[in-house]
Amino acid sequence: MRVYLSSEDAVEGNTLRHQSQRNSSTGDLIASDSSRRITDEAELKQAIKEHIDWWSRKPSCFLSVFSDEKHARHWAKFCSRTQFDVYIYKIDTTHLPTDTYLFDVDSLKARLGFVHPTSTHEFIFLHRITAQAIVGKKDLGEIWEEEADAQRYATRPFDPNYHWVAELDDYYDFDEECEERNRCDDLIKMIEGDWD
């Protein structure tokens, strides 16, 4: 699963509310309260309620991430109103160590009985996200540039030799390029035994 973290890189020693820091020696993303220990459901519920309450001034032991990139982009833009350097980190959960705690907020909401109206696509890590799971990083400038490019593509004049192929989720210049990609996919399916 890929998840996306909208985060601001903190200056060393600066511990603003909900702010994560990138450890300069390990590259890990660390929650502002990485020492809090949770021993039961009541403590977990309280820690989550403090994390999702934007009026709370307590440092959080969680890092919120989103399973939907659009949601993460929207959140990054929202955060950029009050913070300076906002980034989106792409995290591959298959590279996480086995002792990592990652919670689905919707599942916790149902189990623990707290209210969080914007929990769709949200997951929370306890204490840290290790550097080996971080597979990409973009700042807001790059994100806005990508969105501007997409808008330009959407409004460009029609060219029959350059078209969008929904199945491949990309633009292609020539039909041959599409067909080559299809042949490669078919060969992989045959090798893996997934051929229909």
TrEMBL record:
Residues 38-141 form the DUF7587 domain. It comes from the Eukaryota. It holds the Pfam family DUF7587. SUPFAM superfamilies: ADP-ribosylation (SSF56399). Coiled coil: none annotated. Residues 1-34 are annotated as: Disordered. Residues 16-27 have a biased composition (Polar residues). This is DUF7587 domain-containing protein.
